[in-house]
Amino acid sequence: MHGRAPVNPILLGRIRHDTVLVSAVMAMRRIQLGKTVSIPLACLATLPLGCSDDALPADTSPVLYVSATCSWNRAATSVAELGRSTHVVIDQTSRGNGGNCAPLPASTRVIVNGEPLGWGYDAETQCLKGDQTFAMAADGQSVAIEVEQDGSVIAQMQANAMAPGTKARLAAPSDGIVHPGGEILVVPPTELPSSYITIPGFYPLESGTFDAYGLNPPAASTRLADGIHVPVPTFVGRAAFVAVGTPPYVPGLVTTCDGFIECNATADNMLGPLYVTEEP
Amino acid sequence: MNSVRTWVTLAALLGASAVGCSSPDPDPKVALYTSVGWNDDPGTLDAIGYQVQVDIGWPDRATDCFALSPDLNVTVNDRAPKAIVAEGCRWDVLTTFDGFLKDEPITIQLKDGARLLAEATYNRPFPGFDMQLVSPADGTVRSGEKVAVALPEPTFERPVIGAMFYWRDPPPEGVPPFHSIVHTPGARASQPIEVTAPTLTGRAWLVVTAWPYSKSMFGADASSGFESCVITNPELLSGPVAVEVVP
After folding, report:
1. How far, in Å, are A134, A136, A274 from residue A83 at the CA level?
2. B17 and B119 both lie in a single domain
């Protein structure tokens, strides 16, 4: 599938199956045009990574796959490391040749949002492989990936809407001043599921022991017509609030996918961060 | 999906795709794959209901990368057309139409501007509407009391895993709609299903889901212009029926 259009999360957790099925159906019909039925059926096990060389362009450019996954940093060890990051994976596959890839020019570079991605060769196939995590700006929504050779771009991907949770807003208290035992009212964005909230956390920014998941509310959050009501735990000073809705998979919006055989983007499904200050 | 089911499904697909579809020349061969499912998390009230996902593809474009008209568009029934933009050498484009709440046929049309290129009609794409409200007859139920629904011809004896109330009353501006899940322990799809109304009140669409989730696949009831045209829809997601939960 060449850089799928944005896919709404139709039915909890089932979209991945559906999109693979779409690929399977289309690939099967494509190959069926000139070959026997048994060949494409056997190929289905390899989807969506391509069914055979039939699916590959008839040129000598490298066959590259790329994916970008945005997520909140659950491995943070300090306040300074809080935020979102995007994990980019790039892989090359061979065009036959016994499963081996031809060497790439030494000038080959992979650039993610202007920063170089370190890559290497698979020891067995000599195909390019690389993955790296890149920090996102607090309001960052886009990921741009380019592959350059000899100063020219041979493949590029652009994905937007990677962090729709930044559109969440604090409806109450309007001044952001909270008190122990009180609650905040969060209006979720329309792009993310919000009927059920999991893993809500308050990250004290000025004091206290840091926890990668933050402080849990003292009671369960409640989704009502006006938004998400979240009880406030006890902390001191300013804190960042985040929460996760369901389902966990949110597609990003791939707007450009040129030169790659497939582009995938997964947006972060975290609501927030929203900032509050607790007073006694 | 187990391997046996996969082979059966694919065999059915091939059979279905060979029936009722033809590809006219000189337009390139175009294939249609449609998927129907309940929209679990609509962003607006208008989006509550079934979604119709329309995947239109030109299989030969994967290798030939031929140009497509910039005026291609697709529509379902009377919905506003959506542009088909296949950037680069993409050979298929997925579009989604929301908010189907009537038990009605759907006709998918692919056009180049106003010129019809292909269309396919599915007479019964939403089998979930088979679910009927049993009691209370008027759909008004008190919070904490039971509402019963039934599937006239359940195909399988499968456990019902839950019911969802999609609240229909307009939320405050800017707040997306939401739903409440009610578990239904012990309920079976082959028997009337009793659901306890949640503590929240208001008008809602009630949907029932069973497990394991699966989909059926079949061909179009009428079509022209598409090389192949199949649809999948949920077998055991049933509803909606309109209810109102009162204090």
Report:
1. 11, 7, 12
2. yes
Structural domain containing residue B40: 3-126+213-234
**Alpha carbons A92 and A126: distance in angstroms, whole number:** 9
pLDDT tens track for A114-154: 999 999 999 999 999 999 999 998 888 999 999 999 999 99
CATH number at residue B149: 2.60.40.10
**CA-based torsion, A209, A210, A211, A216: positive or negative:** positive
Element (H, E) at B38: strand B31-38
Calculate ∠ Cα A223-A228-A234, nearest 5°. Answer: 120
> Which residue do the tokens 């020019």 mark?
A105
HSE of B104 in the Cβ direction (CA atoms, 13 Å)? 13
Same domain, A46 and A144: no
| Three-state SS at B21 | coil
Specify the 3-state DSSP secondary structure of B20: coil
pLDDT digits (tens, 9 = 90+) for B200-236: 999 999 998 876 555 678 899 999 999 999 898 766 6
Handedness of CA A146, A152, A154, A156 (dihedral sign): positive
Please answer yes or no on whether A44 and B10 come within 8 Å at the CB atom: yes
Give the global pTM: 0.78
Task: Kindly state the helix (H) or strand (E) to which residue A88 belongs, with its residue range.
Answer: strand A84-93
Task: Retrieve residue A116's tokens.
Answer: 């170089």
Task: Say how many domains are in chain B.
Answer: 2
CB within 8 Å: B40 and A55:
no
Q: Name the DSSP letter for residue A280.
A: -
**Cis? peptide before B177, omega within 30° of 0:** no
Give B88→chain A minimum CA distance, Å.
6
B208 & B156 share domain: yes
pLDDT digits (tens, 9 = 90+) for A61-113: 788 999 999 999 888 899 999 999 999 999 998 877 677 898 899 999 999 99
Give CA–CA dist B150/B132, Å, rounded.
5
Interchain contact A185–B (C-beta under 8 A): no
- Nearest-by-Cβ selection for A11 from B38, B94, B171: B38
Domain limits at A197?
165-247+274-278
Q: Does A53 touch chain B (CB under 8 A)?
A: no
Q: How does A222-259 read in b/e, with b if 16+ C-beta sit within 10 Å?
A: ebeeebbbbbbbebeeebbbbbbbbbeebbbbbbbbbb
